[in-house]
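Reviewer comment 2.1 asked that we show a complete input and output for one of the modelled complexes. We chose the flavin mononucleotide case, as it is the one discussed in the main text.
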Amino acid sequence: MNLPKPKIKGDISLEGAIRSRRTIRSFKEDRLTIEQFSQILWAGQGITEERGYKRSAPSGGALYPMDIYAVIGKNGVAGITPGIYHYEPNQHTVSIITEGDLLHDVARAALSQMWMATASINLVITAEYNRICSKYGERGVRYAVIEAGHISQNIFLQAEAIGLGAGIVGAFYDETIVQVMKIPISHEPLLIMPVGYKG
Ligand SMILES: Cc1cc2nc3c(=O)[nH]c(=O)nc-3n(C[C@H](O)[C@H](O)[C@H](O)COP(=O)(O)O)c2cc1C
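Response of the prediction step:
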């Protein structure tokens, strides 16, 4: 599914977004628009060169070992069927991996932090270590984890800048998340970010 072109100008300053960012744990039931969804994914991993492949977040050796999966619930994104979607930065598209509203299953796998399921969407940031460890060996794991931090902060600040809020969750059972979402086992979940309207 094609996503709308992201905008590169906003109403809130970078400083304002940094100043107001907090981990949000309570959300309204409202759906996101596809424009908001597109903007958030682009901020996390979108291509930011006119004719290139480099992304919004830095990556050791520009090897890009990270993926973003979106868990979209029934109050998720207007016009998108509930399910698990994979973001493809090069095309700026999402493709469906698994159908159904799995927000509660994901929250249960995150030590039953059920507040996560009140968000419109959860974004799962994964690392495929092979892509970076083939060049850097064990150190590639460190680089990928650092990259997850860059991606998540971009998502946090973009959410603030368009009037949304985000949370961040590191406490979850890795294997259960992979099983529930039916994502490749080589994609290791590092962080989950619930995103929606602040409640
Ligand atoms: C790597 C990482 C993992 C986190 N895991 C959780 C989590 O599982 N559940 C949760 O409610 N908050 C989690 N947090 C959010 C922190 O509790 C929060 O960032 C901290 O209290 C500071 O608050 P702030 O983000 O609003 O500034 C995590 C934060 C980070 C950076």
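The mean pLDDT is 98. We note this here for comparison with the apo prediction described in Section 3.2.
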